[in-house]
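Lab notebook, design round three. We kept the backbone fixed and only want residue identities now. Task for the bench partner: fill in a sequence for the structure below.
Input structure tokens:
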């Protein structure tokens, strides 16, 4: 019998270049450098467990149902047998099955062999422990059965036993493979045995063992009769419950029993929606999010959030940021996660601080800011606004959780479901899109906090303007098409340019409609306190906020001139009065460092300070009518006087006024970075990049024209390796296939990252992502991203290799 790899290679070799390109596009991980040199090598990469695991979450519900039905049947399986099991022999169900099989073939998970029977990738078959509730086939369950036990089973069935064990096993398999013969045997069974077998066939396999202390578990009534005829199989030494072979279960379920199959997606109630309405709502949502994101990151730039000892930003810090930025927690979480993914933030000791890339981002137009954040969201391998874990514990933001492929597929599945809505229509209830998403991506991650399927992901999409009015917005369409140029153009069209002017009111407020420009934000933040953000941002002026600008060394005339330059009209008189009144009281008291000295030109004012009860803790003492000395340090004295409503200024040692400006703290992204993004502008660099369409077309053409087995071995060494590194690794890592050897050698030679399956000295299997590899046989030194430190790995303990 041919192996799955050989039949897959033969099927791939029969494909033309166009169909082969479709397979490569569906399984991009298999074409990561070094590219496969033959169809045999491509088949080996397609059969990797890790590669199959990456492809599974992208399958629709009918494709998964067809694959599970194939896993339940004994290979090889004819398309007719599969159609009978799924009740998909005609009509819409038949067309749905053909589409499902075509999808599975495009992903190289199921393919026809030379005789037309369907074959399945071995790792895909292992995805189900009990497909359709069926236990292992009879041949697997009987592998430890003795020849004498087989003889007794055949005798009890009325079949003349053969001489050798293989012949007896073949005879028993032939008997149980005939549903009619199995049904006839059960029909003659005692009532207890027949009832037991029918119940087990209906309920399916229950893998939980029954353990009794002091001996094997007691058989159920009727079990002995079934065990004597191979209708149930007991484990060695009679431990564990009797197990029913898959052939017996299918025979007892009867020909009329069909596996579940849902070829069509759920029907979504629709309402008319015009493109202008979708654009308008998407523009409003995206504009509001960019404004909130700018506020959140501005708060983080001024006061970097502290990290918990266990990692991440906790609820208290999230509440502080949300209060300062005037936005809700989901927006704060979404901003922090996307900004971290885009390298606008990075861990800096016990805090998470903005990086130099944030300063560049803050100067961009709103459309470019949105592009960076929405691109990061699209490739983020987690759900940013998730707040609870599976065990209902609070989840910090930026917790550094391992990548979640199901979360990524939830996002992709949602947009795929929304793209199927006809133009001019939108979902009547946006929650209905979650039900369709569950059909489109049944293996996607559904969060425990969601009252309806994918509610959190839907809310994020609405906040970003990806979904609007129950339909896919142009932003979402560009994301789904993976078209960066189109996404940039759509963002420019939907988001207005940054506002450079403000409307000042007599109530001492400044209102900016849309997203304010960075310079306007800097100006208003220096003179006023922000009260609201989003589609319209509001700042409020107060004596305290104006004193803040005066403390920074700005003269009152310069403040008024700068505000007038960005005003849509003349400055209101109340604002001008506020600036002048605050300036008149500013600097009337001067504080010099000694420890410290307070002096001024008004003896009455200094006498008032010396007699002030609330300032007694400073230890003030009057040395002269215009001089006080304080026992408290300068900063403490300065803060106390300001808290009581005075407006002192600090002097430096030479008697000049000290300028007070807040210092901006910036973090440096660690190397290697703590998390790999998926490639937005400004994001950390990838170790590998997905090939473009032209490269896939050329590779498909080369593979279609190449011999099935690929290049011949070296005529001198007899080793089919292209480099010396491959030969060295192959000599020590003997558990690795030729393809894995090439992948690991490429990572060593080119300095790229790679993921390995490693078996520690304790026997524990772990998955590690490595970078900066250095080969020193029999060891491999590399930076381990799991441990965030350099580690040494023994080559012989590496059991598998995958591209990162």
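Proposed sequence:
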């Amino acid at each position: 019998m041919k192996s799955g790899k050989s039949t897959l290679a033969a099927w791939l070799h029969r494909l033309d270049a166009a169909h082969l390109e479709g397979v490569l596009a569906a399984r991009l991980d298999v074409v990561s450098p070094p590219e496969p040199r033959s169809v045999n090598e491509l088949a080996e990469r397609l059969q990797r467990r890790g590669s199959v695991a990456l492809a599974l979450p992208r399958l629709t519900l009918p494709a998964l149902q067809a694959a599970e039905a194939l896993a339940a049947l004994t290979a090889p399986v004819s398309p007719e047998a599969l159609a009978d099991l799924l009740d998909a022999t005609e009509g819409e169900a038949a067309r749905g099955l053909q589409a499902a099989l075509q999808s599975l073939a495009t992903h190289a998970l199921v393919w026809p062999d030379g005789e037309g029977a369907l074959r399945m990738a071995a790792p895909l078959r292992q995805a189900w422990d009990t497909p359709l509730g069926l236990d292992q086939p009879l041949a697997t369950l009987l592998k430890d059965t003795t020849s004498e036990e087989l003889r007794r089973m055949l005798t009890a069935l009325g079949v003349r036993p053969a001489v050798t064990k293989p012949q007896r096993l073949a005879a028993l398999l032939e008997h149980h493979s005939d549903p009619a013969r199995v049904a006839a045997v059960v029909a003659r069974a005692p009532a207890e045995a027949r009832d037991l077998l029918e119940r087990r066939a209906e309920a399916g396999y229950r893998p939980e063992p029954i353990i009794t202390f002091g001996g094997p578990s007691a058989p159920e009534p009727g079990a002995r009769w079934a065990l004597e005829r191979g209708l149930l199989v007991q484990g060695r030494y009679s431990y564990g419950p009797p197990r029913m072979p898959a052939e017996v279960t299918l025979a007892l379920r009867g020909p009329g029993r069909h596996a579940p199959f849902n070829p069509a997606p759920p029907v979504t109630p629709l309402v008319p929606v015009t493109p202008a309405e979708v654009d308008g709502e998407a523009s409003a949502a995206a504009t509001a999010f960019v404004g909130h994101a700018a506020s959140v990151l501005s708060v983080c730039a001024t006061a970097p959030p502290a990290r918990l000892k266990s990692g991440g930003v906790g609820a208290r810090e999230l509440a502080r940021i949300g209060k300062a930025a005037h936005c809700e927690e989901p927006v704060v979480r979404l901003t922090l996660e996307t900004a971290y993914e885009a390298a606008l933030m990075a861990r800096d000791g016990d805090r998470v601080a903005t990086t130099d890339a944030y300063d560049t981002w803050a100067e961009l137009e709103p459309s470019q800011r949105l592009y960076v954040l929405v691109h990061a969201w699209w490739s983020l391998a987690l759900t940013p606004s998730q707040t609870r874990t599976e065990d209902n514990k609070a989840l910090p933001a930026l917790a550094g959780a391992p990548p979640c492929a199901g979360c990524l597929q939830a996002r992709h599945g949602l947009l795929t479901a929304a793209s199927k809505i006809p133009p001019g229509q939108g979902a009547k209830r946006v929650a209905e899109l979650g039900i369709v998403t569950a059909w489109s991506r049944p293996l996607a991650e559904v969060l425990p906090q969601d009252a309806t399927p994918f509610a959190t992901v839907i809310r994020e999409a609405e906040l970003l303007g990806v979904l609007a009015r129950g339909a896919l917005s142009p932003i979402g369409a560009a994301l789904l098409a993976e078209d960066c140029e189109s996404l940039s153009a759509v963002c420019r069209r939907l988001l207005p340019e940054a506002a450079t002017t403000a409307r000042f009111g007599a109530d001492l407020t400044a209102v900016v409609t849309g997203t304010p420009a960075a310079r306007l934000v800097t100006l208003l933040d220096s003179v006023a306190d922000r009260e609201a953000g989003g589609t319209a941002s509001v700042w409020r002026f107060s004596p305290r906020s104006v004193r803040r600008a005066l403390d920074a060394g700005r003269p009152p005339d310069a403040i008024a001139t700068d505000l007038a330059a960005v005003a849509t009209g003349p400055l209101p008189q109340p604002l001008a009065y506020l600036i002048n009144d605050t300036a008149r009281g500013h600097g009337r008291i001067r504080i010099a460092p000694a420890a410290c000295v307070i002096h001024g030109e008004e003896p009455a004012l200094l006498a008032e300070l010396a007699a002030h009860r609330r300032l007694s803790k400073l230890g003030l003492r009057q040395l002269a009518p215009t001089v006080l000395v304080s026992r408290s340090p300068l900063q403490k004295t300065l803060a106390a006087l300001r808290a009581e409503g005075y407006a002192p200024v600090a002097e430096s040692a030479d008697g000049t006024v000290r300028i007070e400006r807040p210092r901006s703290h910036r973090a440096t992204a660690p190397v290697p970075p703590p998390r790999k993004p998926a490639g937005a502008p400004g994001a950390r660099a990838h170790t590998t990049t997905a090939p473009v369409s032209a490269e896939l077309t050329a590779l498909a053409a080369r593979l279609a024209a190449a011999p099935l087995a690929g290049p011949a071995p070296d005529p001198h060494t007899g080793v089919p390796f292209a480099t010396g590194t491959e030969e060295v690794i192959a000599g020590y890592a003997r558990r690795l296939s030729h393809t894995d050897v090439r992948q690991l050698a490429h990572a060593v030679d080119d300095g790229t990252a790679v993921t390995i399956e490693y078996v520690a000295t304790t026997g524990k299997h772990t998955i590690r992502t490595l970078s900066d590899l250095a080969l020193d046989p029999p060891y491999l030194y590399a930076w381990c991203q799991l441990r965030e430190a350099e580690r040494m790995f023994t080559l012989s303990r590496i059991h598998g290799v995958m591209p990162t």
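Keep this in mind before ordering anything: The mean pLDDT is 86.
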